[in-house]
Design the sequence.
């Protein structure tokens, strides 16, 4: 069995058995990461293009390492988002990439839906590495992998995702991912940062963090973009921390063995205290390691099957 | 040069009647209406056209035009042309009171020539063009330019709207009386709402003095913010910034209150939400002088159409929810909504190929409007054909004080013939408009304008 589509654009349309396949494959890939020689020849002769319209270290490096461990050639293309506005269209970039013949294009883009646009224009496989406020499917997959690894099973777990849900592509992808795997997702944040009609995804909505944390297996904190304050979405950092900051006392409301997760980069002392972020319950660094394994699995499943986008 | 429209189902939206009539046109005016006009008026067709009766295929026109495989002959005849309209609706020339012709300033999107060709092809004999040109139509010179170009290159009547404020900047009033003297039919800063309520009050007071309506694009910019689609479950899932229904309704409410204060005729452009319809309904009940319009795309599509990030669905106001669409249709039915107008907004392919959030708002509408009205409103029984025609003829004419919109003896011979039986597939590449930006590409629609007559001249005929 393989993946049904040649692109990974979102978690919304992916089937649970496909998620399972990716997670299972990631387990085998993770083993490679702990070998003394971290390289297998699986994707020799394949080209992966990391096309990033937004600055990102974590995700780009993760994809780059994943490609290199699988012996693929990897090129990094950084495009300033401002040049898009100046008329250098995604369409032109797509045509260029097509002409260069990449097998997989990993796209990070500040505008929601850009990977769909690209997928229509190129023959390569497209992996969404985060588009606007829409989705960040590889982040959700690595989060699923991390939780499954620690808890054994995803089914029947309670996951609390806390913070600025409105602007978070990580939250959207994780809502789909965890829900599809049978977990219950709780969403918590100030009403100003809860997107309209989010309940229709099947999540449970909270505005009081204490209630959201009660008895959960996983606490996932989201990064607060400090400029949201100027947009009138919360009155002050001080009040935000008071309501939605994760500290030791609050964490005690979750199950004793609850995992603490964060997609990074952290605002230490804002959404999460250092004491919690560096505690034994935190799996933030494991998430990073697992990110490489999950991305290796995806590259293998896509580029291994679709050379130049053709099966 | 005379023109006889023979045997069509003539719709009179004023008395809501449909009767089989012949219509005789001479010198740009309707000169006779009746049954078997050829006989009763003693038009000696046999002599003038060279030896056959009207029903025959042997009229002496050198180039007979075949009209749906029935005999039709036109301009080529020396004295009289005949269009056989049997089985078709013959309606007063349609009026679209919300069109962006883009000239001057954005000729790559549309020109007055191509926009009016699109109008003719879509069955419109008169169109009202919005002032968001470059330079904006905020002075007599620009209005005069539009009128002259329309005179020279236009296929249909063009009635310009002047701006409310200078440069559509919302700071100072335009010279509204001078614009009125130049012939504008209304005032609007379309696309740029007048945010300052005091200025809007004065604009309405001034427009009332000039006896012209103010057309308001209702959108509270702070609430709409960077929104690109309707705020709802779909925008949440797509991660696209939403425009709440409240952004429109807040300003609809404000402008209705100001219309009540000033006594000015307020026309609300492109209402898109259930709340707006309710506000207008209540205002009309109170006797406030307010009218409004809806576009075919707003009564046809919902925000779910955006799901594939197709920028052809990006429009302002945005495509709303199912409940809003149902409320708009109900508003059409009970006459809360007076007018169907297209908000024809052509853009280039390059612009629409951008990422959804960067692509411009707007879709073309002139060449699909009639089919959408029939397919989505008339055939499903939401409006009768008379009611639908009224919203594209007498109603906009009344709002804009145009001596148009009805077929009567002595009236301008602006007439549209619609074939309700034709089914076709929308092919943007066949549009006369430069704009191909439609979300209806590939849709199968029923009923189509087949002839457009402006001032007694056949400007477009489907061959």
Sequence:
């Amino acid at each position: 069995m393989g993946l049904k589509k040649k692109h990974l654009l979102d978690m919304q349309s992916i089937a649970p058995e496909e998620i399972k396949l990716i997670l299972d494959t990631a387990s085998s890939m993770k083993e490679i990461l702990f070998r003394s020689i971290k390289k297998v020849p699986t994707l020799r002769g394949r080209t992966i293009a990391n096309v990033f319209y937004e600055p990102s270290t974590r995700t780009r490096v993760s994809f780059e390492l994943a490609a290199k461990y699988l012996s693929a050639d990897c090129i990094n293309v950084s495009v300033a988002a401002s040049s898009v506005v100046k008329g250098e269209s995604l369409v032109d970039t797509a045509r260029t990439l097509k002409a260069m013949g990449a097998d997989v294009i990993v796209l990070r883009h500040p505008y929601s839906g850009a990977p769909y646009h690209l997928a229509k224009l190129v023959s390569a496989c497209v992996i969404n590495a985060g588009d606007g406020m829409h989705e960040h499917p590889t982040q959700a997959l690595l989060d699923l992998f991390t939780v499954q690894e620690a808890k054994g099973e995803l089914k029947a777990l309670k996951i609390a995702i806390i913070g600025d849900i409105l602007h978070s592509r990580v939250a959207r992808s994780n809502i789909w991912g965890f829900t599809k795997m049978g977990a219950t997702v709780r969403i918590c944040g100030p009403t100003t940062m809860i997107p309209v009609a989010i309940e229709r995804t099947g999540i449970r909505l909270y505005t009081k963090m204490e209630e959201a944390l009660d008895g959960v297996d996983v606490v996932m904190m989201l990064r607060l973009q400090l400029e949201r304050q100027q947009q009138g979405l919360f009155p002050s950092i001080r009040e935000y921390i008071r309501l939605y900051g994760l500290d030791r006392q609050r964490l005690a409301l979750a199950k004793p063995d609850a995992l603490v997760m964060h997609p990074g980069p952290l605002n230490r002392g804002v959404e999460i205290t250092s004491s919690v972020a560096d505690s034994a319950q935190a799996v933030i660094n494991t998430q990073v390691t697992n990110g490489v394994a999950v991305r290796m699995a995806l590259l293998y499943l896509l580029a291994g099957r679709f050379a130049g986008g053709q099966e | 040069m005379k023109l006889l429209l023979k045997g069509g189902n003539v719709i009179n939206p004023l008395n809501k009647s449909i009767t089989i009539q012949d219509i005789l046109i001479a010198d740009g005016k309707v000169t006779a209406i009746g049954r078997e006009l050829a006989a009763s008026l003693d038009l000696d067709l046999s002599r003038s056209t060279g030896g056959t009766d009207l029903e025959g295929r042997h009229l002496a026109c050198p180039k007979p035009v075949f009209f749906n495989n029935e005999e039709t002959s036109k301009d080529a005849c020396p004295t009289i042309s005949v269009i056989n309209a049997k089985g078709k609706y013959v309606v007063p020339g349609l009026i679209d009171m919300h069109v962006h012709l883009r000239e001057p300033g954005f000729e790559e999107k549309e020109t007055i020539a191509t926009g009016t060709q699109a109008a003719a092809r879509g069955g419109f004999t008169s169109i009202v063009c919005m002032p968001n040109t470059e330079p904006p139509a905020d002075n007599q010179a620009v209005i005069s330019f539009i009128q002259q170009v329309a005179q020279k290159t236009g296929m249909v009547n063009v009635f310009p709207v002047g701006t409310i404020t200078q440069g559509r900047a919302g700071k100072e009033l335009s010279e509204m009386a001078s614009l009125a003297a130049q012939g504008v039919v209304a005032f609007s800063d379309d696309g740029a709402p007048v945010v300052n309520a005091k200025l809007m009050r004065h604009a309405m007071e001034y427009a009332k003095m000039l006896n012209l309506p103010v057309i308001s694009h209702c959108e509270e910019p702070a609430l709409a913010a960077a929104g690109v689609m309707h705020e709802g479950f779909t925008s949440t899932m797509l991660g696209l910034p939403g425009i709440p229904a409240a952004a429109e309704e807040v300003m609809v409410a404000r402008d209705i209150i100001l219309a009540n204060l000033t006594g000015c005729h307020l026309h609300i452009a492109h209402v898109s939400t259930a709340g707006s319809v309710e506000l207008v309904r209540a205002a009309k009940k109170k006797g406030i002088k307010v009218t409004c319009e809806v576009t075919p795309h707003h009564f046809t599509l919902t925000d779910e159409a955006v799901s594939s990030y197709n920028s052809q669905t990006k429009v302002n106001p945005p495509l709303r929810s199912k409940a809003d669409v149902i409320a708009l249709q109900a508003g059409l039915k009970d006459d809360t909504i007076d007018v169907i107008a297209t908000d024809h907004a052509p853009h280039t392919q390059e612009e629409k190929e951008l990422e959804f959030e960067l692509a411009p708002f707007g879709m073309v509408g002139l060449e699909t409007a009639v089919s959408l009205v029939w397919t989505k409103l008339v055939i499903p029984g939401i409006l009768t054909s008379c009611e639908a025609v009224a919203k594209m003829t007498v109603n906009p004419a009344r709002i804009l004080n145009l001596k148009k919109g009805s077929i009567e003896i002595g009236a301008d011979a602006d007439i549209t013939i619609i074939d309700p039986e034709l089914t076709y597939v929308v092919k943007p590449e066949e549009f006369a408009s430069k704009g191909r930006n439609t979300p209806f590409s590939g849709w199968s629609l029923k009923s189509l304008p087949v002839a457009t007559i402006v001032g007694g001249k056949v400007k477009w005929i489907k061959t």
About this structure: The CA atoms of residues 219 and 248 of chain B lie 4 Å apart. Residues 46-77 of chain B have pLDDT under 50 and may be disordered.
